[in-house]
Specification:
There is one protein chain. It is globular and about 50 Å long. By secondary structure, the chain is an alpha/beta fold. It is built from eight helices and four strands. The chain has a single domain, classed as Diaminopimelate Epimerase, Chain A, domain 1 (Roll). Helix 3 runs parallel beside helix 8 and helix 7 packs antiparallel against helix 8.
Length: 166
């Protein structure tokens, strides 16, 4: 049964694992990368790192993609003036990265480009390089967004740049 190994991973991946992978200096670097990128494009990026899912979510078989969509709504990433919110979701226990983008941004990038950003992170995470791979993925994402959804002058920052660790 696939649920048992997954349940074990989620039970054993606690807040301490999240702090080791994403200490305050790494979170600050991610926040700075988001702010730097948002100066070059009009999208609004949110990073949410979840160490593990609740037991009920694991038993229900909640996939990382489904959870990312839930958080996209819960943290109102969709609530931007130009429908330009982008959620970069990391699930440490499942070793998954998902991107959910609002409609104005989603149509500008191909599926393989979104997947490439996720692959940059997951490959680095597999090597234990959390900060370097998160920053590389954000730079990749920011470059794509700057090319396809460039900044057009001063604008209000609509979503906080600080990553969330759940």
């Amino acid at each position: 049964m696939k649920t048992l190994p997954r349940m074990r991973r989620h039970l054993l991946t606690g807040k301490a694992a999240g702090r080791r992978a994403f200490p305050p200096a790494t979170l600050a670097a991610i926040q700075a990368a988001i702010a730097d990128g948002e100066a070059r494009h009009r999208a609004e990026i949110r990073v949410i790192i979840e160490t593990r899912l609740a037991t009920g979510a694991v038993l229900r078989g909640t996939a990382a993609r489904e959870r990312a969509h839930q958080l996209f709504v819960e943290y109102q990433v969709w609530d931007t003036e130009e429908n330009c919110g982008v959620l970069l979701y990391v699930n440490l226990a499942d070793h998954k990265v998902e991107i959910v983008a609002d409609r104005a941004v989603a149509r500008l990038l191909r599926q393989d480009e979104w997947q490439g950003v996720c692959a940059t992170m997951t490959a680095g995470f597999a090597r234990g390089e959390y900060q370097a791979s998160a920053l590389a993925a954000l730079e990749q994402l920011n470059a794509l967004l700057a090319e396809r959804f460039p900044a057009d002058g001063e604008r209000e920052n609509q979503l906080p740049d600080r990553p969330i660790v759940l």
